Fold each of these.
Amino acid sequence: MATDPVCYMVIDEDETDCRTHYKGQEFYFCSDFCRKKFEQDPDRYVKLARSMDIGPDISC
Ligand SMILES: [Zn+2]
């Protein structure tokens, strides 16, 4: 399982078509909405994903 770095929803890699590569890592998203948010400012969300105690940026 993976975590949507934007809303922190748990994502099943086999179930989603919303994914993107960034700096050699693969990220999965619950929706195109979160994927677009990530692609607008990937560094911000990569940082958030590394420090889960900050909490999600948005909820969806
Ligand atoms: Zn999401």
Note: The beta strands are 2-3, 10-11, 19-22, 25-28.
Amino acid sequence: MSTIPPTLVHSRLAEQLEAEGAFVYLDLAAEARKRGIDVISFGIGQPDFKPPSEVLAAIKEAIDEGHIGYISSLGLLELRAKVAEYLSEKYDTDVKPEEVAITVGAKSAIFMAINLLTRPGDEVVVPDPGFPAYECTVRFAGGRPAFLRLREEDEFRMTPERVEKCLTKNTRCILVNTPQNPTGSVLKKEDVEGLLEIAKREKLAIISDEIYEDFVYEGRHYSFLSMPEWRDYVVYISGFSKTWAMTGLRIGIMVARKEVIEKVGVMAINIYSCPPAPFQYGALKALEIGLDWFKEIREEFKKRRDAACDELNRIPSVKALRMPGTFYLFPNVKELVAKLGYKDVRELAKAILFEAGVALLPGTAFPLRGGDGFMRLSYVLPVDKIREGLRRVREWVENK
Ligand SMILES: Cc1ncc(COP(=O)(O)O)c(C=O)c1O
């Protein structure tokens, strides 16, 4: 076994970082495939459709025209202006171009927002289960994550009542994710209003990660940008990875008041200089096209959600809520773990992978505690594959 030489020893900050559980399980699924297992994967959080062809054509054209150099760290001016116009219309507000940063995926926006708003010792309320980068980045920034346990009985929503219970004199910021990864929950209007009321009363910032904003199947998505006072409290984050199926092109969006965006520009210069220009031309084309084409995608995802939910609930000792957003379900498998005698949900996930050939992520990958006894299923597969995969799990359970 190799040990790290003293010249390359890790910093304290590097020790705070943890690999995202989803990626660890994707590696395991790859290993299972190598062993000859035909794996059906519900692991990955990546759309299986393609962006409209005009978007891809615009990217190719941008490259052919030579838009491959450095540009402003905050992104193309035309794109910032278009994002401002697009979001203003979508959420009935008045975002200005100087209040928009184009970032390298939503993830870099999350990283910069948390690092900008957190001072050493500050507490940041983060959902548990939740997107692993939140916890990790809060620690990295010298802050402390205050975990808010999302409960099945609240349909996994981060309700204002529950947030109140997490507040201390050190609370600085509330990290909200709606629609939510990994549970699929969507905040109601009164939740969004209630959270903003708390922010106003306690003088807190809200970082709102709305990357799944277009994947809502019942009701609608309430954005923090639709609150009239967003400018004094809210950092909105989204991007092109999910709706536009551009995960690998790394174009994210941050909206916040001008002074915050200016600082983001400085941070961005020091981290990555600028988001890649050709892909921003693709993003610009995407917003010009608008979302009409996406209705069909949403309908398809709703069918998948229903198929996955029905099949999950046919598996003995598994209970899945029909969650209204994202492309994830978060079934409760506590009884199954106990019945089959596994130590925890990680062991169950491994057994299902290697014995039934189905990849599901243990809830504890998001990031540790609140997901115990749950699994995340990502329904980015055609309906027949979803049914086949979950039938396999059912038969495996029945024959155990
Ligand atoms: C809640 C949430 N935020 C942010 C991201 C990252 O988005 P991007 O790929 O644009 O960095 C993801 C991706 O899975 C996510 O689930």
Note: Residues 68-289 form a domain with the Aspartate Aminotransferase; domain 2 fold (CATH 3.40.640.10).
